[in-house]
Every structure is written in structure tokens, then in C-alpha cells.
């Protein structure tokens, strides 16, 4: 049985990937410090509590498991926090990733799937974004991810080591079967905040910035359902297991929605006219990020199943109502 070691596998995205891996018959070991993850979200495999900043711990865990491939999700992801506390982001996201790669080197694991981000592109002038566009991140979160991409590129040239970096756009929604979803109490994803406000878990939600150079003045993003993203990870894994060379892929639908459009859609789907407060821009937020996903469709055969904003919001809404 093929063994997959998953850092951050108890978190929002990681747990959905673990679910799909388990359903497809992979043997999974989840390594997570549970700072933002939830052990109840790990539906398959074994869970070991540990931190990627503790090299000896992760080296021991990986050596005992002897994985065929590693998927790395254990990162800090909140853009405004990265601006306020950059060292925390460089330490966890860069040094932590290097620890994971070093542990792989020790136990001779040579296939790595990296959780990257569209934030590596910064504030590009052209849309949609293709993988060959220059990287120019504008916040420490994006820079930390771009640094790890460079590390992977350099290390793969020096060793027998192959990787896929998946550059996520805005991940949203929940498992359509209702078994798992976002559990982090201070989650900052827009759709999560919308449905939590509709549920009454928040008094109101904030829209940051109404003066961007977009049709309605709010930021435009490409929203991808978390299970379509999970499917992209499994396809990337299969690609590496079959001998594929290191590569980078965007994960998005190529359709942008403004923050205001998402808020309006959430009100329609939930049937709740929840309160919204408009606030100034947050530091580090680009006006628009929309994916060109041609490459992943052509090279990995990715076929999204849930490219529908209403459905994405509905799955998030059903999950939040379930865990009231």
C-alpha cells in the first residue's frame, strides 16, 4: 500500500485531502500540532501530534512511517497577521518546510506536494494568472511561500527529488457529504465568515476595502471548492508516483467574483440578511487574483466537479448549521 505522510492533515484543506486519500486506498500518517487543526477531522490513517519546527520529532515520525510521498499543508496563512508578525511566518512557513524536506532526505523520501498560493504573484497587471508569470509577492505570507518554491526548485536540481507546487486561489466550501469542514474558530475565509454570520456565530462581518480598481470597488477572487482542490492533490500525487517531473500548477476555476458578489450570493443561499460593515483596506490584499488553470487540466487531467459559487456556499452553510 502506498504511504503518504501529511503535515497539517488535521486542518481545513489537509483533512479534506486526507479523506480523499483514504477513500482511494492510500495509507496515511497525519502529523499536526493541532494549533488550528481538529483531530476529529482526521477520518483516515493515524494522527501524530507534533510540530514541523521540531526537527527531531518530524524526522522520527517520518523515519518510522517510511512514506512514499509527503504532502505539506502545515503553514500559517493569514495575510494581515503576516504583515504584523512577519518573523512568525518566515519561521513556520520557510524554516518549517525546510525541516520537512530535511526529514525526507534523512529517510530517502523523494516525492513532495507543496501547498502554495496565488499570493506568490503579488499584484499582477494581467488576468488570468498563468504559472509562467513572474513571482512578486506583496506580503510576508506570499513571500514565505515563494521562498519555499525556490527551495524546492534548488533542492530538486541537487538531489533525486521531485515535487509539485499547487498554487491555491481562494479555497472555500465543505465536504458535500457533511463529514468535515472548516473548524478553526478564527477562520478568515470570506465564505466561512458569511455563513457564520448568517448562523449567528458572529454579530456581523466586515468587508475590507471598497475603493479597489474593480467594478464595485471590492476585491475580486477566484473561489475553488475544497474537494476539487483535494482532487488536484491526488492527481499531483499520481503524477509523481508515475515518474512525473517537478512542476507548478494553479488551482482555480478561472472565474472571479468580487467580495460584494460573494456576500450577496451568501445572503441568497442562506436566506439571511446578515449584517455587513464596510471597513478600510487591509494591508497586503491585491485587488484581483484569478487563475488560468489550463495547465493542470491539460497535464494532470483535472476536471472540477463543483465549479458553482452557490454550491460552494451551500456546502459551507450546511456544515456550519451542523456544528451549531
Helices and strands, with pairings:
Elements: E1 3-7, H1 12-23, E2 27-32, E3 46-49, H2 55-65, E4 69-72, H3 79-84, H4 86-106, E5 111-117, H5 140-158, E6 162-168, E7 170-172, H6 190-199, E8 205-208, E9 220-225, H7 226-241, E10 247-251, E11 256-258, H8 259-270, E12 276-279, E13 288-289, H9 294-300, H10 309-322
Parallel strand pairs: 1-2, 1-4, 2-3, 4-5, 5-6, 6-10, 7-9, 8-12, 9-13
Antiparallel strand pairs: 9-11
Helix pairs in contact: 1-7, 2-4, 4-5, 6-8, 6-10, 8-10
Description:
This protein has 324 residues and is an alpha/beta fold. The protein folds into two domains: 3-171 and 224-251, Rossmann fold, CATH 3.40.50; 190-221 and 254-322, Alpha-Beta Complex (UDP-galactose 4-epimerase, domain 1). The chain is 40% helix and 19% strand. It is built from ten helices and 13 strands. It has a seven-stranded parallel β-sheet, sandwiched between helices. α5 (140-158) links the parallel β5 and β6. α1 (12-23) crosses α7, α6 packs parallel to α8 (259-270) and α6 crosses α10. The longest helix has 21 residues, at 86-106. Pfam families: Epimerase.
CATH superfamily of the largest domain: NAD(P)-binding Rossmann-like Domain
Q: Which consecutive residue ranges, at least 5 long each, have pLDDT under 50?
A: none
The neighbouring-strand order within the major sheet is 3-2-1-4-5-6-10
The total count of helices amounts to 10
Mean pLDDT: 97
Distance between the termini: 38 Å
Would you kindly provide a brief summary of this structure?
With 324 residues, the chain is of the alpha/beta class. It has helices at residues 12-23, 55-65, 79-84, 86-106, 140-158, 190-199, 226-241, 259-270, 294-300, 309-322, and strands at 3-7, 27-32, 46-49, 69-72, 111-117, 162-168, 170-172, 205-208, 220-225, 247-251, 256-258, 276-279, 288-289. It has two domains: 3-171 and 224-251, NAD(P)-binding Rossmann-like Domain (Rossmann fold, 3-Layer(aba) Sandwich), CATH 3.40.50.720; 190-221 and 254-322, UDP-galactose 4-epimerase, domain 1, CATH 3.90.25.
Amino acid at each position: 500500500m502506498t504511504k503518504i505522510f501529511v503535515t497539517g492533515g488535521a486542518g481545513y484543506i489537509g483533512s479534506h485531502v486526507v479523506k480523499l486519500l483514504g477513500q482511494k486506498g492510500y495509507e496515511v500518517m497525519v502529523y499536526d500540532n493541532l494549533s488550528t487543526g481538529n483531530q476529529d477531522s482526521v477520518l483516515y490513517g493515524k494522527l501524530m501530534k507534533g510540530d514541523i519546527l521540531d526537527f527531531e520529532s518530524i524526522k522520527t515520525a517520518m523515519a518510522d512511517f517510511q512514506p512514499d510521498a509527503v504532502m505539506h499543508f502545515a503553514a500559517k496563512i493569514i495575510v494581515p497577521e503576516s504583515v504584523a508578525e512577519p518573523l512568525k511566518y518566515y519561521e513556520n512557513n520557510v524554516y518549517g518546510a525546510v525541516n520537512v524536506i530535511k526529514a525526507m532526505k534523512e529517510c530517502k523520501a523523494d516525492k513532495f506536494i507543496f501547498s502554495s498560493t496565488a499570493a506568490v504573484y503579488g499584484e499582477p497587471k494581467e488576468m488570468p494568472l498563468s504559472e509562467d508569470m513572474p513571482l512578486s509577492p506583496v506580503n510576508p505570507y506570499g513571500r514565505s511561500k515563494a521562498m519555499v518554491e525556490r527551495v524546492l526548485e534548488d533542492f530538486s536540481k541537487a538531489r533525486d527529488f521531485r515535487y509539485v507546487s499547487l498554487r491555491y486561489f481562494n479555497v472555500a466550501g465543505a465536504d458535500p457529504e457533511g463529514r468535515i469542514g472548516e473548524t478553526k474558530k478564527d477562520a478568515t475565509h470570506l465564505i466561512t465568515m458569511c455563513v457564520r454570520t448568517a448562523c449567528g456565530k458572529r454579530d456581523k462581518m466586515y468587508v475590507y476595502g471598497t475603493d479597489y480598481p474593480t467594478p464595485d470597488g471590492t476585491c475580486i477572487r477566484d473561489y475553488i471548492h475544497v474537494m476539487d482542490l483535494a482532487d488536484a492533490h491526488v492527481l499531483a500525487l499520481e503524477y509523481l508516483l508515475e515518474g512525473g517531473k517537478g512542476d507548478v500548477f494553479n488551482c482555480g476555476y478561472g472565474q472571479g467574483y468580487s467580495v460584494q458578489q460573494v456576500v450577496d450570493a451568501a445572503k441568497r443561499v442562506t436566506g439571511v440578511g446578515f449584517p455587513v460593515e464596510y471597513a478600510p483596506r487591509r494591508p497586503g490584499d491585491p485587488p484581483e487574483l484569478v487563475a488560468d488553470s489550463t495547465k493542470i487540466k491539460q497535464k494532470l487531467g483535472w476536471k472540477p466537479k463543483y465549479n458553482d459559487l452557490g454550491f460552494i456556499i451551500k456546502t459551507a452553510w450546511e456544515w456550519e448549521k451542523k456544528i451549531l
